[in-house]
Amino acid sequence: MSDRPAEPPLWEQVAERNAALPRGERLQKVLAATGYGSRRVCEELISAGRVTVNGEVAVLGRRVDAANDRVEVDGAPIGVRPDLVYYLLNKPVGVVTTSRDTHGRPTVVDIVPREPRVFSVGRLDVDTEGLLLLTNDGDLANRIAHPSHGIDKEYLVEVRGGRVSPGAIRRLRDGVELEDGITAPARVSQPDPAVLRITIHEGRNRQVRRMCEAVGHPVTRLVRTRIGPLTDRSLQPGSWRELTIDEWRALTAAVAGAADPPSHPGDAPTTSANPTATIERRD
C-alpha cells in the first residue's frame, strides 16, 4: 500500500489553479478603455512584448486589477484606474500652486473640481501664469516632474532692458551660473525685442526668472506656454479642461521616450494648438 496521499479530484485541481490566476478585466480590454486603440491593436501591443504588469511582460489573456496592478506600455505607466483624471489649467497671476494657503490666497485646486482630489505636477510661482497639469495619477506625475525624463517646459518671457544681446542669449543657451549651480543648456529665441522664448527641462525654483536676471534682464511677465506635447492657446486664464485621449497618450509616450505613441482611427482629434504662441500685450 502506497504512503503517497491521494490526489484530489481533477475538478479541485482546476479550481485551485484558477484561484491562483490574477483576477479582474482582460488586459487588452483595459488598455482599449484608456484610449490605446481597439482591442486588436492592444492585443498586438501585448503580443509584441511592449506591455508589462507589475514589472513582468504580459501575455495575451492576462487579467489585471485596475485598482492595484501597475501597467506600463513601452516603459511608461498607464493609468488604468477608472478614477484617474488629468486637467490642463491656465493658471492666472495671483493664484498659488498649493492645495491650501495660509494667507487665504486662491489656489489652483480651488479652480478645478473638488473630487477626486488632485495635485499639481510641478509648480508655478504666484506671479507666473500659464499651463499647469493637475492629476491624481502619482506614477505619471513623478515621471513628468523628474528632470531625467527630459519633459520640456516652454515659457514666453517679457524682460526689462530692451533687446537682449546675442551674447546674453548665448549664455542662456549654454548655461547660467546660479547660486545652486549652473543651469542645463536651454533653447532660447527672441521673437520680439524684450521678449524671449525659453525652453528648459529642469524644475528649479524660479529658474527662468533667475536665469534672466543673471544676464541683466529681470523678468516683468512670465507665461508657461507648453508642457511637453501639451499646449493650448485657446484656454483662457483661470480656465481648465480635461486632456484629450490624444494628449494623454502623447504625454505618456513623451515620458517613456517613445517617438510616436500608438494610434487608432477612432480617436478624437486633439484640441492642442500651435506652440508658437505670442504674449498678448497688456496696457
- CATH class placement of the largest domain: Alpha Beta
Main sheet, how many strands, which sense, barrel? 8 strands, mixed
Gyration radius, rounded: 24 Å
**Mean of all residue-level pLDDT scores:** 82
Topology as a string of helices (H) and strands (E): HEHHEEEEEEEEHEHEEEEHEEH
Q: Multimeric state of these chains?
A: single chain
Compute the separation of the termini in Å: 100 Å
Residue stretches low in confidence (pLDDT < 50, at least 5 long) are 258-283
So what's the overall shape? elongated
Question: Remind me, CATH topology of the largest domain?
Answer: Pseudouridine synthase
Known CATH architecture of the largest domain: 2-Layer Sandwich
What is the assigned CATH homologous superfamily of the largest domain? Pseudouridine synthase
Descriptive overview:
By secondary structure, the chain is an alpha+beta fold. It has 2 domains: 10-78, RNA-binding S4 domain (Structural Genomics Hypothetical 15.5 Kd Protein In mrcA-pckA Intergenic Region, Chain A, Roll); 86-256, Pseudouridine synthase, CATH 3.30.2350.10. The protein contains 7 helices and 16 strands. Strands 7, 8, 9, 10, 13, 14, 15 and 16 form an 8-stranded mixed beta sheet that branches. The protein has a 4-stranded antiparallel beta sheet with strand order 3-2-5-6. A hairpin with a 2-residue loop joins β2 and β3. α2 crosses α3 (39-47). The chain starts with 9 loop residues before the first helix and ends in a 27-residue tail after the last helix. Mean pLDDT is 82; it is low at 258-283.
